[in-house]
Amino acid sequence: MKVDWCAAQLVSYSCSYPVGSFQLEEPPAEICHCLDHDCWGTVSEWVELNRVPYKIPKFLVVGHRGNGMNLLTSGDQRMKAIKENSIMSFNSAAKFPIDFIEFDVQVTKDGCPVIFHDDFIVSEDNGVIFEKRVTELCLSEFLCYGPQNEAGKIGKPLLRKTKNGRIVNWNVEKDDSLCTLKDAFQQVEPSLGFNIELKFDDHIVYQEDYLIHVLQAILKVVLEYAHDRPIIFSSFQPDAVLLVRKLQNTYPVFFLTNGGTEIFYDVRRNSLEEAVKVCVGGGLHGIVSEVKGVFRNPGALTKIKDAQLSLLTYGKLNNVAEAVYMQYLMGIDGVIVDLVKEITDAVYDMIKPSKVDDLEEVTLAEGNREVVEVKSNPHFSQKELSFLLKLIPQLIQE
């Protein structure tokens, strides 16, 4: 089990931005300003009373960072096809029958929500490699890295640090410029849902006033430009998901968790059981878990469903059709995937009725007439189920 925290690494992050910088129209005004501990009971009661279970109507496929994340050291060219978290990647994913794209949002020093996964921009100047924290850049500086939209303008080099600390060129087959959250709303297919991950550094302890400042900047853009687009908020940062739930009552909020596959300083992040507690206590609508965490602890699925929470998963196993198939059988609500084309094809094949015998007719009374509904009723042989049950434990050991 990987341990990904150290108390010595944790630093405090606060700011002096005014809490009431932006006027949010969704919740009652007193809720937006009732965020101190003296008002905690009142806020919790308001959230619980206003929490309607978020019912996902079908098995969702969500494009990870658009058409898939970039693994620049991978031998699989599909993982280096299109720049992740870009308008090009988002619209490429929209060509397939997916329901949402997932992307990471941070807020620049001057208050603009931008889409970028890593905590730091890595670049090079005269042979010297340097890093700059995304949230400490102003918007104009952030946008000057990588390809530029303005004809003839050359951007600064954009490199990337891998998990093992190696610095590599961010080379992909189809590159694109960095973008803002507003750009995504204005330039991406409007019917495509957005799973907005509220991105924070795992090694920083954030003060509440800073979190509120960031969330209000994001909500301001969402409320102005989302219109009818489906939105889901999610974050690994427990306090951020609790706050965004209190600051708005329009869009569902999901808690992201590694599901116990990694251990963190904040115990709320260390198991599916803790994730359920966070969601129930904060009136959240669902959980997004590393799929290995669910496969290693399938009993938690019952607890999640009993709490009327939705469950999505992410992780490399979601690029394996058999693993997605198993989740569909288990009643998981959807998967976040990198191989969008391959998995959408697989999901279509696994869910569609193969022949008339596989359909179940349900007769419903409607007024004075009978309505026949045809529902898909998939049948799986014992051999198929046995194959999947044997395959999954082998996969999660990789």
Automatic annotation (TrEMBL):
Gene Ontology molecular function: any one: glycerophosphodiester phosphodiesterase activity
EC number: 3.1.4.46
Entries under PROSITE patterns matching the protein: GP_PDE, PROKAR_LIPOPROTEIN
Domain GP-PDE: 59-347
Chain ranges passing through the membrane: none
Known catalytic reactions: a sn-glycero-3-phosphodiester + H2O = an alcohol + sn-glycerol 3-phosphate + H(+)
Main enzyme class: hydrolase
UniProt key word Metal-binding: no
GO biological process, alphabetically ordered: glycerol metabolic process; glycerophospholipid catabolic process
SUPFAM superfamilies: PLC-like phosphodiesterases
Domain of life: Eukaryota
Keyword Protease: no
Keyword terms: Glycerol metabolism, Hydrolase
Protein family membership: Belongs to the glycerophosphoryl diester phosphodiesterase family.
Record protein name field: glycerophosphodiester phosphodiesterase
Organism: Hevea brasiliensis (Para rubber tree)
